[in-house]
Amino acid sequence: MLTEINFDGIIGPTHNYAGLSRGNTASASNAGDVSQPRAAALQGVEKMRHNLALGLPQGYFMPLDRPDAAWLETLSTTLAEAEPHLRAQAWSASSMWAANAATVSPAPDSDDGRCHLTVANLVTMPHRSHEWPGTLAQLRLAFADPAFAVHGPVPAPFGDEGAANHMRLCAGHGAPGVEIFVYGIGGGRFPARQHLDASRAIARRHRLDPARTLFLRQSDMAIQGGAFHNDVVAVANERVLFTHETAFENREEAHAAIRAIFPEVEIVEVPASAVSLPEAIRSYLFNAQLVSLPEGDGMGLVLPTEARETPSVWTWLEAHVAGDGPIRRLLPVDVRQSMANGGGPACLRLRVVADPATVDPRFLADEAKLDRIAAVVAAHWPEAIAPGDLASAALVHDVRRARAALLDAMDLGELV
């Protein structure tokens, strides 16, 4: 039976604040701070526990091998000799944000009846551009069943940042859906990371019906305001699109196009007069998991605690829940370490609609597995990493040993 499974990226032992993500205001504002990898990973585990307790299927992905000495070799340098900015890029733990791992088209949307996944190339940001080989290996292991088709990346220079710029509307997760690809156009001080040509290539590769596929332009205002991905200003679930007023270029045309291709849509729009774009980005109101609750309990919004601490945001949300809107429960979670580096609850997960029986069970979560992950993290993840620590050979040894311990505990030695 097809169901939506959220696969969260386990926050790796090299989690640090190097401020590498241009256009990401949280990443830039916390650059140089001391990170807490152990606390970060445990916060991520608790978010997964929270969603399991809601009755939502949950999976996870392992951290990638970092620091990436092999990548530095392609630049003719080493961890010891690399310039500080290159060393920091090799240390990046950004694969934790699994929304950027791939774009996923469920089987009901594809004309060959398979679930298609295309690994994101992430070429716009150097620190993320070397993630895809490790991510692809993991996707091919987790989704090796013939029910899936796992594809390599769209070639450079066509930037693709995965599911963070992709939405799906449907009557139910297992029903045929309408897929919406959101792209940007460059020209401002911050880059547009999702290219239209990349999105079109993925739609063709996934064998989507053109009549049920839409390409919308993200607004320049949103990108230059710090919404580096569409999922910072909009999220969809089943028939609901939850969006900020400034999310799309030519807003009225975008909404009309959505309604034309999927008349059942309910567009829940937060006006800029109620929640400004800076407030929406700072609180990550839309970088939340909009989920269908079991037992017909409507939809819940798994959102960061920062949303509750932003008065305008919480006032709007409480008024919506008190009314007859589709969001019936507000479910704050603490992911502050991830938030400080520019990723909220939605950044941490990749949505895959599939039969759980077709997924490698080593990637599916239950309480016992989460206990095992938490125990390894508590025993092996560094408590803190300061910027100067990235030059430490001892820390390199420690973080590699930590990842190896996790892979061993989860019986995923193929990923060493």
Description:
The longest helix is centred in the N-terminal third of the chain and has 17 residues, at 37-53. Helices cover 33% and strands 19% of the residues. The strands form 5 sheets. A 3-stranded mixed β-sheet has the order 2-1-15, with helices on one face. The radius of gyration is 20 Å and the shape is globular. The model has no long low-confidence stretch (mean pLDDT 96). The chain has 15 helices and 15 strands. With 416 residues, the protein is of the alpha/beta class. The protein has helices at residues 25-29, 37-53, 69-74, 84-91, 126-129, 132-142, 196-205, 220-225, 251-261, 277-283, 305-308, 311-322, 336-340, 367-380, 393-409, and strands at 3-9, 58-61, 102-105, 115-119, 148-151, 166-170, 177-183, 213-217, 234-237, 240-244, 266-270, 289-292, 299-304, 327-333, 349-354. Helix 2 (37-53) packs antiparallel against helix 14 and helix 14 (367-380) packs antiparallel against helix 15 (393-409). The chain starts with a strand and ends in a 7-residue tail after the last helix.
- How far is the N terminus from the C terminus? 32 Å
The major β-sheet equals: 3 strands, mixed
What integer is the average pLDDT?
96
Overall 3D form? globular
Cα Rg? 20 Å
Count of separate DSSP helical elements: 15
Judged by helices, strands and strand pairing, the structural class is alpha/beta
